[in-house]
Amino acid sequence: MLKLKHATYVLLGTALFYASCSSKSEQAVAPTIANEQLTSAYLKLTNEANASDTTSCRYRFHLDNNGNVKSTDSTALVIKANAKYDVKVVMLDTTQSPTFTVSDEIKQRQNYHLFFFQPTPISSANLVIGTSSPYISGTVTSATGPYLNLAVARTDLDTNTPPLQVGLTDLFTTGAASTGNLRLVLRHQPNAKNGLYAPGSSDLDVNFKVTIK
Amino acid sequence: MRITILFILLLIGTNLSYGQNTGFTLSGKVKDAATKTPLSQATVSVTGTSTGTHSDSTGFYKLVIPAGIHKIRFEFVGYATIDTVLNVNTNIKLNVSLKPSDQFLKEVQVKSTAEVRKTIETQSLTVLQGTELERTRGLSLGESLKSITGVTTFQTGPSIAKPIIHGLYSNRILILNNGVRLEAQQWGSEHAPEIDPFIANRIEVIKGAAGIRYGSDAIAGVILAEPKALPTTPGTMDGEVNAVGMSNSRLGAFSAMVEGALGKKLEGFSYRIQGSYKRAGNTSTPNYILGNTGLSENDFSAALQYYHKNYGVETYYSNFNTKLGILAGTEVGSIADLKARIQETVPTTPADFTYTIDRPYQTVNHATAKVRGFYNFDDGSKLQIQYAYQTNKRSEYDLLSYSTSLNPSLYLKINTSTADINFDQKPIGGLTGSIGVSGMNQGNVRMYQYLIPNFVDYDGGAYIIERYRYKKLLFEAGIRYDYRWLKAYRFNDTVAKIEATTTHYQSSSSTLGATYNITSDLSLSGNFGSAFRAPTVNELYSNGVHQTLISYEVGDPNLKTERASNFSLNLNYQSHRVAIDLQGYYNNINNFIFLQPTGQYTRVQSGSLLMFDYTQANVFFRGIDLGVIVKPLDSLEINSKTSLIYAYNKTIHDYLIYTPPMRLQNGVTYHFGSLGAFKNLVLGAENVFVAKQTKVPANQDYAPPPGAYSLYNAHLGFRLIINHTYAAIDLSVNNLTNVAYKDYLDRFRYFANEPGRNIIFRLRVPFSILQNNK
């Protein structure tokens, strides 16, 4: 019976020991850190006819402390009609210090990534869809105008065999004055990139307001 | 043979823990198998001892034998001798039918009824053990239990399976690993139980609200994974080796165990050391390979026990380690991506076979240490004290687009200490019962992304269960009180400081039941169980994207406790030719907590996600589990299992999502007996039919439920005698016809088919190292 009592004390003592010393680490809340966090995307444009004519637009995500998107804001893109622009896509993670340039990392992994550009609204008449086009198939078309008169072509290639486009640099060709949206999508297609939209999943999917005048 | 084994093993009933007292009675009748006439003067002996007796003129025999594992021999001149191994820890009634020895011994009829000591006697208890359990070796715990009526799995691809009992899963089921309540992050629908099924030699499933004995939360049921009792014969050392190979996923699983009881001066000490290793690569469906579905697992356990006349101490340690690949292509970023995946008939990303596991994957480590002591008082009462400490570390690695980070996206570490004291009172007339208290303390720490907060919780409970046996009737009643104190620590970004929120929950659980043994073959039980479950931290404080479900989940800190009222009625009939187990149940749950789609979308970088809120409603689950075994011939067994379930949300007048559809399992087994070198040769085939779930709530799912499916499985089992020991070999083919199908309760049905044909080889070799080395 004595042994039983001893056993009871030992067990209860151990229980109390653990109970009393276990709450310190829980009170210190570790910061929320995501492995990947995109906070802003820019399109930086340079007029081919005039190198000093530059413009850009920006899409920004504001995050809460849990890393969830709290709100977003964006600036519009205003470009000239009947012009050609060289375009560069820049993406940042501003939660890191110093700011982390995501687009540089995308360049490193260009064989797994593909950008798509979709001007909207579009008409069925001027719809351009093909394996070499950066447009997103399945976008709703409208029979009546007005349409955003913008054509986009990717100008860079990856190192796949045969090489496939990437879209970190592009050529925008504008037509007559018009307004609309430009949807920018970055597809992540590990071991599956084939030039098409379908494989993989989206890393970024944003819309910029565009005015061509 | 299975019915035989089932009945023998029923006897092996309770884990031997107490009962080193004077001994138990083994009694029954010896009959002629064909004519059923009683055999008088048949010899019944305990092998290796001088204990023995002869049956009387009515065939009746009675023996008093000490607790422990004994080999009992039944002999009668001109008849084939029967040897059976019994784990004696209760009074046993064993009827034996002997066959004339000139007849080819195909099958022996052993039927017995044991006074199985159940914690809640009037509730349905299903035991998976013996050959039935052996034929699940290599599978996960969840998958192993699928042959039980009313039990199925909630899956996340081929590598992750959680058990479902009567339509409920996760926190609503308690899982006990060698008597320790498994505490991990079990709220997650893709968090599989951290248990190595090789540890268990019997798995018990209690269907229904069983919170009374094992603690609140068990409103759907309890699963007990029980290792074999440690050996007690001094100076012995035994071992067992298991090997499993599967053609699909090219799985290899190995398990080895050594156990023994020390002799000489160390008599009373016994031990066991066990380890398992499992490795699998990508699983194949009939038409394509599922990328990144490999898994690896390595587990270790050790037990040391000291037994004296009336007290004993047992220590146990187990360590479970796993790495689980998550199907490639399932980490979608938006509703649009998911819809595109659902439209695909074949994954756009082709995969080849490999054992390599890439991101996304999970790693989980679960360590359990336990000390248990017991004391048997002279008056027949028993005291048991148990303390256990568990650490569960879970890391979830997300698919990375551009980062070179090696960090997980989520890391959760939860430490749990549990202490339990149980006292079984001495029997007073027909009255027996137990009283106990239990306590638990948990601490959870998170890192990287936010899914659930840090928290500390304290739980305490006390219970009393009493039962009264009067002639053919057994009454049972019990009540329990539980209290939970929960403090969550979160960073509040609006005020930029750590905020602590304390909540407490308290309630009572109760049970009331009766069993009427109409005849020795037929019994009827009714049970009412009332149990509650306090909301878990994820239900209270989740706020963010749940990966792979691509749902944005929002918790509600004001959730109340769930209250289940479970009524069940059990009819059990067992005779030589027919065994029927019928259970009907109605489980009403008030304030049932579930995730409801809000119809609203939230913006993330990769697109939009559907938002889900944790909400409460009054719901009910009702259903029927029916198991029938018919033996038209001694060597032929036909069995049929039916699970029907209906779930309804009374608050919004709609069905409940993820309710298992009707499931039918029909099988036939033929026992050849011995054919040359092949002993215990068994050939079986079964059909598993799962209906389409048509009763689904409107607008709550990304895709409609998949259609019905019908699978054929076959198996061939036998034993080979090698050098005084045997090797048990089982060859099975699952999904024989290579049917491409989807299961409603697999969250990855949006993305892929279920596995195709799988040929499985299982080998089990028990062996003896030392005998009587006193």
From TrEMBL, chain B:
Its GO biological process annotations read: siderophore transmembrane transport
Q: Which residues form the TonB-dependent receptor-like beta-barrel domain?
A: 310-736
Q: Which residues form the TonB-dependent receptor plug domain?
A: 122-222
Q: Which UniProt keywords apply?
A: Cell outer membrane, Membrane, Receptor, Signal, TonB box, Transmembrane, Transmembrane beta strand, Transport
List GO molecular-function terms, semicolon-separated.
siderophore uptake transmembrane transporter activity
Q: Note the topology in the membrane.
A: Multi-pass membrane protein
Specify where it is mainly localized.
Answer: membrane
State its location(s).
Cell outer membrane
Q: Which GO terms describe its cellular component?
A: cell outer membrane
Q: Which SUPFAM superfamilies match?
A: Carboxypeptidase regulatory domain-like, Porins
Family recorded in the similarity comment = Belongs to the TonB-dependent receptor family.
Indicate what this protein is called per its UniProt record: TonB-dependent receptor plug domain-containing protein
